[in-house]
Structure formats: C-alpha cells, structure tokens
Write a structure and sequence with these properties.
The protein is of the alpha+beta class. It is built from 5 helices and 5 strands; from the N terminus they run βββααβααβα. It catalyses: a 4-O-methyl-thymidine in DNA + L-cysteinyl-[protein] = a thymidine in DNA + S-methyl-L-cysteinyl-[protein]; a 6-O-methyl-2'-deoxyguanosine in DNA + L-cysteinyl-[protein] = S-methyl-L-cysteinyl-[protein] + a 2'-deoxyguanosine in DNA.
C-alpha cells in the first residue's frame, strides 16, 4: 500500500492509502482516505500494496470483487470525490449517476435532464469524464444519444477505454434478469 498526501497522486482529495485491485477489465488502483474511497484509477498507478489496508479500502475491494463476480449491483462503500459546489451541474450530474439502475443505460441527454438541465448533454459528458470514482459511481452506464440498446457497440468515451466500457455494460446486462432491457430512464422516475 502506498501512503501519500501528495495531491498529484490523488488530485483534489487527501488520499491516505492506495491498493491495486485486479479486475476482469484490467488493473484498478483504489485510493481512500480514512473514511471513504476518494478515487479509482485505471491501471497500476500506486506503489506497493500493504497486507493491511484500512477498513474502508477492504470494503471497497470486497465490493468490487462481488461486483465483478456478478453478485453485487450497488456499492455501499462511502465515496468522497473532489470537493465541489453542491449547486453545480457537475455535482448534480455525478450524484445522478448512482440513480441509473444496474444493467440499464442512459444517454448523456437523459443524465442532463435528471440533473435539472435538459439541454446540458455535453456538460453531462464532462461530469462523467471527471467522475473520480468510476465503476463504483457508474459513469459507464451513460452512452451517446441514439438507441441505448446499441450501447454495447456505440459507447462513447471512457477513462478506461471503450472496450472496458463495453465490457462493463455487457457484464451488468448478463447479470440482469431482464437481460439489460430495463428501460428505466429519468423521464419515467
């Protein structure tokens, strides 16, 4: 485990520990404070792991393992991203990401509408791109406008790459009784 207070290692948040989490989509590096996950990075971005990660990090690793194993649909581990203005669109959009049901996808426009600014689809994309805790806060469930049912082919950008985003969407749909045909969108909430 890497102990750090270096803001370059975990921008915008005070990270105390990091741990590598091997996943079917590649290596994830999970950063935490004493009380919450503050960042998830794609790839091997930290130093050596410790055999004694803090409790919040153990919880995050267990929940990620359950998610990738198909037995977890929502995360309960506390998350605390970069400090943000609670009235900002980005903060509202990142909060709305957790409202997207497991196995479903929303368009950037639907995320914008759920965040109170229906015309802000581009800003919704920026909110997804700046999500500090991907996978745990499911920005992979947001796709470009068009037919959301074609999301596995046409996914848009993603920090871990388009193939990873396709895998995450397909993984959730394969573990959803309706085979991912849940059409729960913000307009119907």
């Amino acid at each position: 485990m890497a102990d750090t207070n270096d803001s370059d290692s975990c921008p915008g948040a005070l990270a105390h520990a990091a741990f590598h989490a091997p996943a079917p989509v590649g290596m994830l590096t999970v950063w935490c404070s004493a009380t919450a996950v503050v960042r998830v990075d794609f790839g091997d971005t930290a130093g050596d792991d410790s055999p004694h990660p803090p409790e919040v990090l153990r919880t995050a690793l267990r929940e990620l393992d359950e998610y990738f194993g198909g037995t977890r649909r929502t995360f309960t581990v506390p998350v605390a991203g970069e400090p943000a203005d609670p009235a900002s669109f980005r903060t509202r959009a990142q909060a709305a990401l957790s409202e997207i049901p497991y196995g479903a996808v929303w368009t950037y426009g639907e995320l914008a509408a759920a965040s109170g600014s229906p015309q802000a689809a581009r800003a919704a994309g920026t909110a997804c791109a700046t999500n500090p805790v991907p996978v745990i806060v499911p920005c992979h469930r947001v796709v470009p406008a068009g037919n959301p049912e074609q999301a596995v082919r046409r996914v848009g950008n993603y920090g871990g790459g388009a193939d990873m985003k396709r895998w995450l969407i397909a993984h959730e749909r394969s573990h959803t009784p309706s085979n991912g045909t849940d059409k729960t969108h913000p307009q119907s909430n």
